[in-house]
């Protein structure tokens, strides 16, 4: 069995690494005869401040953009979301049973402060990220001792060793066809132990003096909630850092103000770091022949949904539940399912995307489950009955579930504030009022607060849920969002605290298989969630940028922003 799996994984790796090239650098030298501007300062805004630039804690799309520029790991993703080597010299050697990975490191890698990077730094970084046990610590679940380190039972993973200064060996508990892809995530990036110690475990990343990484760029200035600046690392070990000499990020402007400043020449691009323009401006640009030339819409592997709290409040499956308790009630009564179904089917998604998504320019209707269309694990077009608008049926079901209106009295829905989210949720609110006769009051918080509330078991009855894929593998969705372990601690976007032990077993089995064998199991798991009416999936996303004509190389590959190394400002 293991030998069969190993062959499949090895074949998959060959495809993944087909684009391998030493350093994989994007250069500003295009050979097209372009004339570069004298000032190569890239300027763009974000609305909310970053939460963290510590790779062991990073989980939001905003933070990922900057983390991927400042740090690298053994591997990274290129613009086509394929794995390429970074600190590693190439793909790992894998034992015949598929459980032992041996990585060979480049000998010229240095941190931005000049410190040499060796195998001990990889072990420190990986053990630290596992011990922090934040949203993406599950990257190290496959390693022997990984779960124990995440649980605080040990400080280091017993399956992780360094035979010499430039070799790292990892022993896995079982085959995991997805693990190599996970190692290209920020969680496995290498950090400098000396810098972490000097700056303080919880705040080292906040100061340019100690925010030390191996990436092509480094932070040079930061004023919380106001601005950040970055600059290329001189004599970067990875090769050329491209044409840009400075990156200036303005923090705290709303979407409308960002676009106004873009139009006056104050920004080169609006859209990076998951900060797309608002829907009104996107539609305005779409309908303007001149402005439409500056508008670029990229597919985004993101799903947005209405998240129902399944352990407390009116939508809970039964009373007395705590996060991590089974919420699946196969063979028994589900006290909240009719309510969840009614609220899901009372949303006309065609109306929603017309009103809140710039006439469908910024999103598409979600009809095929929680995993976004186009990705492995997508259940299928029209396969989610909760997405089928049925106002009369929803009203009838609501009356059956809550005949006297006591369950929905004073009901609230909470979302993180932005112009696009405001339009989105106000439309859903109006539809629930029109189709169900229920007034749902809206509450806004910033994104960090929304996540904290979930982690502290303070999520309201209805909250905004959203997830952008980290890579094209269903394991990324299920293990980070919908397992019982995630429900217990409210990680990621798990605002509903869903826990189905049968689905957990199925997903665990699928995780160990090659993806071609595992895909049907993931689809079955997605169908289980639909059958349990876990969430009302509303839209699949797109990513819109407004880009000045003189800026080249900016864009999005569906999962991540293109790296700064490939951008340049032409004379204008």
**What's the mean pLDDT score?**
90
Strand content: 15-25%
- Return residue spans where pLDDT drops below 50 for at least 5 consecutive residues: 1-16, 18-30
Helix content: 25-40%
Number of strands: 19
- Separate helix tally: 17
Radius of gyration over all CA atoms, rounded: 24 Å
Characterize the main sheet: 7 strands, mixed
Class based on secondary structure composition and strand pairing = alpha+beta
Distance between the termini: 61 Å
The 3D shape can be described as globular
Describe the secondary structure blueprint for this structure.
Layout: H1 2-16, E1 41-46, H2 61-70, E2 75-77, E3 83-85, E4 93-94, E5 100-104, H3 119-132, H4 146-150, E6 160-164, E7 167-171, H5 179-182, H6 193-199, E8 217-223, E9 227-232, E10 246-251, H7 255-263, E11 269-270, H8 279-286, E12 295-308, H9 337-345, H10 349-356, E13 363-365, H11 391-401, E14 412-416, H12 419-436, E15 441-445, H13 447-455, E16 462-468, H14 475-482, H15 484-489, H16 501-511, H17 515-531, E17 535-547, E18 551-552, E19 568-569
Parallel strand pairs: 1-10, 14-15, 14-16
Antiparallel strand pairs: 2-3, 4-5, 5-7, 6-7, 8-9, 9-10, 11-17, 12-16, 12-17, 13-17, 18-19
Helix pairs in contact: 9-11, 10-12, 14-16, 16-17
């Amino acid at each position: 069995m293991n030998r069969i799996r190993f062959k499949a994984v090895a074949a998959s790796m060959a495809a993944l690494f087909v684009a391998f090239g030493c350093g994989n650098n994007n250069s500003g030298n295009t050979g097209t005869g372009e004339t570069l501007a004298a000032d190569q300062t890239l300027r763009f805004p974000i609305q909310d401040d970053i939460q963290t630039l510590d790779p062991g804690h990073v989980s939001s799309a905003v933070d990922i953009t900057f983390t991927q520029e400042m740090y690298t790991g053994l591997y990274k993703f290129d613009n086509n979301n394929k794995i390429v080597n970074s600190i590693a010299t190439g793909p790992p050697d894998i034992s015949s049973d598929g459980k032992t990975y041996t990585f060979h490191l480049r000998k010229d890698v240095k941190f931005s402060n000049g410190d040499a990077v060796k195998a001990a730094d990889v072990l420190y970084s990986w053990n630290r990220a596992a011990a922090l046990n934040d949203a993406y610590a599950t990257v190290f679940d496959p390693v022997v001792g990984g779960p124990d380190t995440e649980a605080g039972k040990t400080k280091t993973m017993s399956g992780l060793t360094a035979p010499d200064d430039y070799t790292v060996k990892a022993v896995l508990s079982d085959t995991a066809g997805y693990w190599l892809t996970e190692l290209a995530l920020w969680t496995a990036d290498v950090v400098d132990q000396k810098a972490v110690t000097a700056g303080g475990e919880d705040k080292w990343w906040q100061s340019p003096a100690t925010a030390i990484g191996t990436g092509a760029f480094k932070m040079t200035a930061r004023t919380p909630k106001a601005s950040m600046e970055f600059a290329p690392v001189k004599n970067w070990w990875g090769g050329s850092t491209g044409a840009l000499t400075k990156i200036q990020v303005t923090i705290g402007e709303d979407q409308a103000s960002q676009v106004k400043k873009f139009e006056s020449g104050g920004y080169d691009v609006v859209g990076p770091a998951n900060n797309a323009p608002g829907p009104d401006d996107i539609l305005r640009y779409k309908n303007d022949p001149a402005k439409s030339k500056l508008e670029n819409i990229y597919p985004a592997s993101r799903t947005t949904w209405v998240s129902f709290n399944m352990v407390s409040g009116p939508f809970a499956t039964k009373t007395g539940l705590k996060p991590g308790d089974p919420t699946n009630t196969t063979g028994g009564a589900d006290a909240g399912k009719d309510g969840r179904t009614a609220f899901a089917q009372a949303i006309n998604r065609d109306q929603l995307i017309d009103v809140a998504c710039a006439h469908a320019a910024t999103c598409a209707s979600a009809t095929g489950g929680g995993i976004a269309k186009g990705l492995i694990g997508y259940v299928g077009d029209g396969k989610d009955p909760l997405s089928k608008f049925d106002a009369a049926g929803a009203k009838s079901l609501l009356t059956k579930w809550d005949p006297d209106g006591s369950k929905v009295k004073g009901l609230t829905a909470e979302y993180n504030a932005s112009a696009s989210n405001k339009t989105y949720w106000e439309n859903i609110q109006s539809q629930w009022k029109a189709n169900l006769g229920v007034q749902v009051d809206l509450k806004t918080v910033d994104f960090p607060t929304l996540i904290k509330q979930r982690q502290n078991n303070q999520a309201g009855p209805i909250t905004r849920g959203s997830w952008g894929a980290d890579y094209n593998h269903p394991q990324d969705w299920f293990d980070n969002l919908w397992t019982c372990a995630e429900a217990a601690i409210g990680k990621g976007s798990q605002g509903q605290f869903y826990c189905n032990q049968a689905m957990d077993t199925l997903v665990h089995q699928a995780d160990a298989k090659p993806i071609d064998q595992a895909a049907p199991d993931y689809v079955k798991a997605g169908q289980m969630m639909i059958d349990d009416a876990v969430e009302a999936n509303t839209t699949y996303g797109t990513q819109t940028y407004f880009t000045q004509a003189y800026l080249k190389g900016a864009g999005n590959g569906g999962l991540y922003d293109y790296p700064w190394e490939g951008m340049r400002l032409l004379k204008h």
